[in-house]
Write a structure and sequence with these properties.
The chain is built from 9 helices and 17 strands. By secondary structure, it is an alpha/beta fold. It has a domain of 180 residues: 3-Layer(bba) Sandwich (FAD/NAD(P)-binding domain), CATH 3.50.50.60. The protein has an 8-stranded mixed beta sheet, with helices on both faces. Strands 1, 2, 6, 7, 8, 9 and 16 form a 7-stranded mixed beta sheet that branches. Helix 1 packs parallel to helix 3 and helix 1 packs parallel to helix 6. The longest helix is centred in the C-terminal third of the chain and has 26 residues. Bound molecules: flavin-adenine dinucleotide.
């Protein structure tokens, strides 16, 4: 029987594996596809966990000192109280996997869990893979991401996303955010020469690429950026994105739910990865203390605050005209922003 198994090898699962190995716990991680596969996301990382990732020798994180929010006619400039980052998500996942393997961590790829017999207080979990292999597990860490509920229930896919890398830096050390009708877009440097652009939008049913470039063409600032800076995509990913939500978790014993499997946060506050890493570290700590219930309480509290603030920002960013009203308010009452930043772990 395996003492502890992590299901899912995204940022959350791999962080948890590293955090457990740091504490001398040799967990097994099961990933349904391959570690480091391209996934729909922005590549901004909130300040909360930059230090933790650097402690794991991830030195490729680009320093992000400020953000520029652009509504319809008005812009707002924010200097982060602590350094945030930009990174290539695939590279970070591969690095975390490499580090874990050096520490004798075990990772099995192409190992999709298709059936779970939940544990009881007296019996372990039984995980079955797509090939029919069974693994008996005492404690399970679910890091199955936004699509976690595939195990449990169909997923609601409400949004569409576009993500691409391009060779250029639009504004060094800066996260650029653009509020668009029914959409928002973020651009962040992920290396000294490369940026990531990610856009979340409500699909209008036409070709996503056309919809995206149609929005860009109608936005003066973006039109200029895309025309003058040659943001030609060197990789392109498009597809549906699920609804953002606090997940309804089954009441299984000896279980920890981390990252998006616990709560998928709106990208508007850029806290998804930070929540993945911080919940992973907390789960490892409280697993060692044998306190899954304390974990559940603390992680739910953290996720709830970020979820509600994220939802507010998510709605605001989809209405550029409303943003034009909100920006002068944020400028005249900076304490509001400071409270929000504090609550989501940016200070
Ligand atoms: C458009 C968009 C933009 C975003 N931008 C940002 C941003 O700029 N900054 C930020 O911090 N966050 C952002 N996010 C959120 C961020 O992408 C997620 O919070 C983060 O990827 C969650 O990581 P995770 O490890 O929990 O899940 P995932 O990265 O989804 O990993 C889950 C893993 O589990 C595996 N898995 C699932 N089911 C099984 C199974 N049954 N068996 C085995 N393996 C399984 C999957 O293959 C996958 O590799 C964005 C999200 C979207 C949609």
């Amino acid at each position: 029987m395996e003492a502890i198994v992590i299901v899912g090898g995204g940022v959350a699962g791999l962080s948890c594996l590293n955090a457990l190995l740091d504490r001398g716990i040799p967990a097994l991680l099961l990933e349904g596809s391959k570690v480091g596969m391209p996934k729909m996301c922005g590549e901004f990382i909130a300040p909360e966990v930059v230090a933790a990732l650097e402690k794991w020798e991830i030195n490729s994180i680009q320093k992000i000192r400020e953000a520029s929010f652009n509504a319809k006619n008005k812009s707002f400039h924010l200097v982060f109280p602590k350094l945030a980052g930009g990174f290539s998500r695939s590279e970070v996942e591969l690095h975390l996997a490499e580090r874990a393997k050096k520490m004798k961590g075990r990772i099995r790829e192409d190992f999709q869990i298709v059936k779970i017999v939940p544990a009881t207080h007296n019996t372990p979990y039984i995980f079955t893979s797509q090939t029919g292999e069974e693994i008996i597990v005492k404690t399970a860490i679910f890091a199955t991401g936004k699509f976690a509920q595939t195990i449990l229930a169909p997923i609601k896919k409400k949004y569409a996303g576009i993500k691409f890398h391009f060779e250029n830096i639009i504004a060094p050390e800066t996260l650029l955010m653009f509020s668009l009708p029914n959409a928002y877009l973020g651009i962040v440097p992920i290396s000294e020469t490369m940026s990531n652009c990610a856009c979340l939008m409500k699909s209008n049913g036409v070709d996503l690429k056309n919809q995206f470039y149609g929005m860009v063409a109608q936005h003066k600032q973006l039109r200029t950026i895309f025309a003058e800076k040659k943001c030609n995509a060197v990789s392109w990913l498009e597809g549906q994105a699920p609804n953002f939500e606090l997940k309804k978790l089954p009441d299984w014993p000896h279980a920890f739910w981390i990252g998006d499997a616990l709560a998928s946060l709106h990208p508007a506050i850029g806290s998804g990865f930070a929540h993945g890493v911080s919940s992973a570290i907390l789960a490892a700590e409280l697993y060692c203390l044998n306190q899954p219930n304390v974990y559940l309480k603390l992680s739910n509290q953290n996720a709830k605050i970020k979820y509600h603030i994220g939802k507010m920002m998510h709605l605001l960013l989809q209405y550029p005209r409303v943003g034009d009203f909100a920006i002068p308010l944020a400028q005249s009452q900076p304490w509001i922003l400071n409270v929000l930043l504090h609550k989501i772990g940016y200070t």
